[in-house]
Structure formats: structure tokens, C-alpha cells
Design a protein that fits this description.
heterodimer; A: alpha/beta; Hypothetical Protein Ychn, Chain: A; five-stranded parallel sheet; 5 strands; globular; B: mainly alpha; 5 helices
Chain lengths: 168, 102
């Protein structure tokens, strides 16, 4: 009998915005719950998710985001977006970041740091991108302990043979 | 003597469709099917929690609800129900798949 290889999903996390941190965390957690192997590869701004100094300070800016409607805050404003001129005011990024974190908390969604710990405890493998680490002068010590090691692009290709890959 | 599952209704994914048909003896048989030979006290703590919180909706709680509700850590949850605790717990507890994402 041929041994069946377990399904394996790989998430490439390349963005460091608060909203772009969550897709891989949520889908990765769901995958682990369904018995699917999970690998996460953090590259470019995605490395912020696993950098000790950055993980609790991820932000979301309203600038240039057409999806940001005032109705998201419960105002009866229909399709009206946050006016661009307001978006550039000092404090708007901090406000939007706070607002999203507050909404997530109300839904019982863990913080990024907590989520990473859950995924790691559930058996997800996490790696940093060597080129980004070199480019930004980071050290292995700068990362959360959930990051197993920093790997090269070739290592990444080797370790993801046969996997389904999601680029975020 | 193992419980007889012939009268129990399952959907195409193997989840029980009527949580009212569930008994502890059935759970033991379902656990064996999922590769868990014997159910320990910690297994039962989780299953009992799922039965309590899931009976009304017929849906199992999410993994996060299980760990926060029982005090059992994520690591232990994955050790007790290896390879897919969310699905395995729901199946063994005779409930449907969890509805939440976390």
C-alpha cells in the first residue's frame, strides 16, 4: 500500500499591516483543526508579524483604502468613505488600528502574538526569509520563539514540495 | 462490548446528525474510529464541555472555546486529539462541525 501524504498548506506572509496579518493566522488555525499540516514563511514586511518589537504594534492606515466606509463604525452613512483629507490627519492610523483591534477583541479573536503561539502549539512550522533578514540587519534573537529558523529561498522550495501554497 | 452504531444517523462527512442519539459508549466507538484507543479523564473533560455547550445548537465549540472553557492548553488539546482536534472532538462528541473560525 502506498502511504498517503498528509495535506500540507503553506502560507507566505509578505505583509505587515494589521489586517493582512490575520488571513494566514485564521486559515492556518482552521487547517490545524482539520488535521492539515501548516507551514508559514515570513518575508519582507511579513517578518514584522514574528519580530518581537513589532508584533504588538501592527497598524492599519485609512490612507488610500476605498474599502474603509464610515458605516463600519456603526454610523448610518451608507457607502460614504472616510474622506481622504481626514485620512491624512495625524492620529488617524492610530485610531483605525485601535478600532480594528477593539472590533476583533469584541469577537473574541486573539491578538497576533497570541495567535502565533496557538499555531505554534498546534504544530505549525514557522520560518523567516534569509534575504529579508540580511537586508534589514535582523538577528534570530529578534524573532519570537515560534520561528524555528531563517531559511533561504532554495530551502523553502525544498521544504514545500507537494504543498498547497497561499501567498498573502 | 462495543456500542452498536447501526441505528445512528451520520452525514456524508461522518458527523452524527442527531446529537440526542449520542451516549458515552458511542463516543468510545467513535474515538476508536478516530484512532484514539482509550478516552482518558482529560478527553472526557473536553467531550463533556462540548456536550454542555454544543447541545443547544448541535454544533461543537471551536478549539479556542474549548481551551478557554476547559483550561486545557492548545498543546494538550493537540496531543489528546492528534491531527485535527476541531473535527475529531466534534465527531466523538456527536456534534456538527464548529461554526466559528477561531
Amino acid at each position: 500500500m502506498v502511504e498517503q501524504k498528509n495535506r500540507h498548506i503553506v502560507f507566505i506572509c509578505s505583509k505587515g499591516d494589521l489586517d493582512m496579518a490575520y488571513p494566514a493566522l485564521i486559515m492556518g488555525w482552521a487547517a490545524l483543526g482539520n488535521g492539515v499540516d501548516v507551514t508559514m514563511f515570513f518575508t519582507f514586511w511579513g517578518l514584522d508579524l514574528v519580530t518581537k518589537k513589532r508584533v504588538d504594534k501592527l497598524e492599519i492606515s485609512p490612507i488610500g483604502r476605498t474599502g474603509f466606509k464610515m458605516s463600519m463604525m456603526g454610523l448610518p452613512t451608507g457607502n460614504l468613505g472616510i474622506p481622504g483629507i481626514l485620512s491624512i490627519l495625524p492620529g488617524m492610523t492610530a485610531f483605525c488600528s485601535w478600532f480594528m483591534k477593539w472590533k476583533m477583541k469584541k469577537l473574541g479573536v486573539p491578538t497576533v502574538r497570541e495567535y502565533l503561539q496557538m499555531l505554534s502549539d498546534g504544530g505549525a512550522k514557522m520560518y523567516g526569509c534569509k534575504m529579508t533578514v540580511d537586508m534589514w540587519g535582523l538577528k534570530e534573537d529578534d524573532f519570537l520563539p515560534c520561528v524555528e529558523k531563517v531559511v533561504t529561498a532554495a530551502d523553502f522550495i525544498d521544504m514545500t514540495e507537494g504543498a498547497q501554497i497561499i501567498f498573502i | 462490548m462495543l456500542a452498536d452504531l447501526t441505528a445512528i444517523a451520520f452525514n456524508e462527512e461522518g458527523f452524527m446528525t442527531d446529537p440526542g442519539q449520542w451516549t458515552k459508549e458511542i463516543a468510545e466507538v467513535l474515538a476508536k474510529q478516530e484512532g484514539i484507543e482509550t478516552l482518558s479523564a482529560d478527553h472526557w473533560k473536553i467531550i463533556d464541555f462540548c456536550r454542555q455547550t454544543g447541545m443547544a445548537s448541535g454544533k461543537a465549540p471551536t478549539m479556542r472555546q474549548i481551551t478557554t472553557g476547559t483550561g486545557i492548553s492548545t498543546k494538550d488539546l493537540f496531543a489528546l486529539f492528534p491531527k485535527g482536534p476541531a473535527k475529531k472532538v466534534a465527531k466523538i462528541a456527536g456534534l456538527g462541525k464548529p461554526e466559528g473560525c477561531v
